Structure formats: C-alpha cells, structure tokens
Amino acid sequence: MGGFFIFETFAIWDTERNRAYIFIFLAAMAIFMFFFKRNFRRKLEKRQKNKK
Questions:
Q1: Cβ atoms within 10 Å of 9's Cβ, excluding its own
Q2: Rounded distance, CA 11 to CA 51, Å?
Q3: Which superkingdom does the taxonomy of this entry point to (predicted)?
Q4: Measuring CA to CA, which residue among 6, 32, 4, 40 is closest to residue 21?
C-alpha cells in the first residue's frame, strides 16, 4: 500500500499538489502500521511461547 501511495504522489505532484500531500501522509501511515503490527505480532507470539 505504501508503495502505491508513493508512486501516486510522484504521478500527480505537478498537477494536484494538495492531493499529493494527502498521499504522502497515507504512505507514511501505511509504513508505520506495517512496522507497528509486525512488532506487536512478534511481542504476542513471544508471550504465547513463554506461557507454554
């Protein structure tokens, strides 16, 4: 998702600057959510492994 938003930002940068800023924000959120979910999932898996 983040890659698509970055690509779309470059595609519309000259024509629709305000919309491009929205895509930059969405790309940043998508990348943040990817790393946050990965970290949270690993933490939960580690906790479940320690319970056994």
A1: 18
A2: 49
A3: Bacteria
A4: 6
- What does the block give as tokens for 42? 């690993």
Paired tokens of 25: 């924000």
Round the average pLDDT of the chain to a whole number and report it: 93
Spatial contact of 3 and 34, defined as CB atoms under 8 Å apart? no
Longest dimension (CA), the chain: 57
Which pLDDT tens digit goes with each residue over 16-38? 999 999 999 999 999 999 999 99
Global pTM value: 0.76
DSSP summary character for residue 15? T
Q: Which residues contact 3 (CB under 8 A, 6 or more apart)?
A: 27
